[in-house]
Structure formats: structure tokens, C-alpha cells
Design brief:
Elements: H1 10-33, H2 47-55, E1 69-73, H3 78-89, E2 93-98, H4 101-112, E3 119-122, H5 128-142, E4 147-150, H6 165-193, E5 196-201, H7 204-208, H8 214-234, E6 239-246, H9 259-267, H10 277-288, E7 299-302
Parallel strand pairs: 1-2, 1-4, 2-3, 4-5, 5-6, 6-7
């Protein structure tokens, strides 16, 4: 916790100083004993223990998504699962969508430990009928949709001269058109409500490019462009649209990358490590919560300061 300069005189100043020092001690205690809220797989949640620690010095934590309904695509594992658990911990009812039905069964159980009303349904973001049915069921169950997290994505890497048309089309269909399909269906509900938060996964490579990823970079750069457009179109209707640009995160997708390349990335990252799924889940949480009520059309890089 960075020190703050408090220029307040008299007894009020002493009271603020006492509260500040107590808060510093509490945060230091928490950092020593619990470095993260949960690990890369979304396991071992420490939110309740954190709240008990804070309450010992008179602090109370707020449930940041209380009463909110969130759709998360690609929610069966990795970043999507970590985000679903994080949102559930903060009071949200979560609709988990993914093509991986087998993995999603266990994933849903972990989300329901914090949010019993949350549910999973198979979702193929490339099929508009599947998307519309998923949105309709979520609205029927909960009456509204407050948050959309466009997280589903794949890679199919190859250099330009070796990339097949099928691999190009598949990545574009899921990573770009899938975001369009989900956003169009969900935004219609949000416009009726006069409220909504839409956050899409792009990538640092969508900003800077990357060797051997023509299809992936094209899709992620396209998501950035759509985010900017939708922020203009939907902002006046009470809907905020933003994007997350993760760096290299420790997920199943990144584990396919050769260690030699990952070591180079770590050397170019001032924090000298890869990101965790919880790093991205917490960024999603900020943009999905009311704390970001004046953030619109932004692309938040969560990359440890990566220098490409």
C-alpha cells in the first residue's frame, strides 16, 4: 500500500492518521498471509477470510456486484472460470457459456459455491441461434442482464505463407464475429433496461502485432475497433463498452507456446513474470462494477508493463 500525504490538522487529523495507520497494518498483514484471492485455476478463495481480517479493524467490504446478472463466454476454464468465480464472490448471478460441456460441469459447481443461482448452458458464439437462446434464457431466469464478458477465444498460429484459410476463418469467426454476435444480442436487452456493462477480451498483440498470428491479431484488433464504435453508439443509452488487453497469461493457451519464447516475454516484462488468471479477472471486475462508471471506450492493458 503506497503511503498517502494527509494534511489535516487538529483532532480530525489525528483520527484520520490513526485510521490510515490501522489500514496500512491490515493490508500488510493481508499481503503477508494471503498473496492472492485465488490461484490460477480459481481455487482456494480467500475472500471470506479477507473480509474477517478487515472487519477486525472496523473496515467493511462491499459486495461489488450485488444483485447483478453477468454473462461470461468461454467460462469453463482459465480466465473465464476465474472471472465467473470472482464475480460470484462479489454477489453476481453468473450465466456461464462454453462449448466444453464436460469441463463446465465441475466449473459450475465451484461458481455455485458462491452464487447458487448461477447456471451453465452450452454456447457456440459463432452460431447466432445459440447465442440468442442463451441470452433469452438468462433474461428469463433473472429478469435482466447487467454485464457481458466476451471472453471466448482460440488460437491457430502459423506464419502468413503457411496459414490455411480454414484456420484464418475459424479464429475470426470465434474471436471477432463471436464478440459481435454476443454483443448484438445482449445489447438489445441492455438498451431496454437503460443500463449495461460490456467488456471484451482483446490482447496486447491486437495493439502491437505478433509474429505468426495474422488471424489472431486481426481478430483482436477488430475487437478494439468495435469497442470504440459501440462506446459511441451505446454510451448515451446507459451502456458502457470497454476492453481488456491481457499480456501473456498462464493459461492452457499459453502453455502451448515454447518455453524459449515465454522466457523472452518474461525478460521484456518489468514484473518479470507471466500474468495469472486472477490478474485478468480482477480487471474484468473493475470494468464490470460501478467503480468504472466514467470509463467508456477504453482498452485496459493488463500486461505487467510488457515492452514489445
Amino acid at each position: 500500500m503506497a503511503p498517502a500525504l494527509l494534511l489535516i490538522s487538529g483532532s480530525l487529523g489525528l483520527r484520520f492518521q490513526t485510521m490510515y495507520e490501522s489500514g496500512v497494518r491490515t493490508c500488510e498483514y493481508w499481503q503477508r498471509n494471503q498473496e492472492r484471492s485465488y490461484n490460477d485455476d480459481g481455487k482456494h478463495s480467500n475472500v471470506q477470510q479477507r473480509d474477517r481480517v478487515l472487519s477486525t479493524v472496523g473496515y467493511s467490504s462491499t459486495v461489488r456486484l450485488a444483485g447483478k446478472t453477468a454473462i461470461i463466454t468461454g467460462a469453463a476454464r482459465g480466465i473465464g472460470l476465474a472471472t465467473a468465480i470472482r464475480f460470484a464472490e462479489e454477489g453476481a448471478r453468473v450465466a456461464l457459456g462454453d462449448v466444453d460441456e464436460r469441463t463446465a460441469v465441475a466449473s459450475l459447481q465451484r461458481v455455485q459455491e458462491h452464487s447458487p443461482d448461477s447456471f451453465f448452458r452450452p454456447l457456440d458464439v459463432t452460431h447466432r441461434e445459440s447465442v440468442q437462446a442463451f441470452v433469452d434464457e438468462t433474461r428469463r431466469r433473472f429478469g435482466r442482464i447487467d454485464i457481458l464478458i466476451n471472453n471466448a477465444g482460440i488460437t491457430a498460429d502459423a506464419q502468413l505463407l503457411k496459414m490455411t484459410e480454414a484456420d484464418f476463418d475459424r479464429v475470426i469467426d470465434i474471436n471477432l464475429k463471436g464478440v459481435f454476435n454476443c454483443t448484438q444480442a445482449t445489447a438489445a436487452v441492455m438498451v431496454e433496461q437503460g443500463y449495461g456493462k460490456i467488456v471484451s477480451a482483446t490482447s496486447v498483440v491486437g495493439l502491437y502485432g505478433n509474429f505468426g498470428q495474422t488471424n489472431y491479431v486481426a481478430a483482436k484488433a477488430g475487437v478494439i475497433g468495435m469497442t470504440k464504435v459501440w462506446a459511441r453508439e451505446l454510451g448515451r443509452k446507459g451502456i458502457l463498452v470497454n476492453a481488456i488487453a491481457p499480456g501473456f497469461i498462464n493459461t492452457d493457451m499459453s502453455r502451448k507456446v515454447p518455453d524459449k519464447f515465454l522466457n523472452i516475454i518474461k525478460e521484456k516484462t518489468p514484473l518479470a513474470r507471466m500474468g495469472t488468471t486472477s490478474d485478468i479477472a480482477n480487471a474484468y471486475l473493475f470494468l464490470a462494477s460501478d467503480e468504472s462508471s466514467f470509463v467508456n471506450g477504453a482498452v485496459l492493458s493488463v500486461d505487467g508493463g510488457l515492452v514489445v
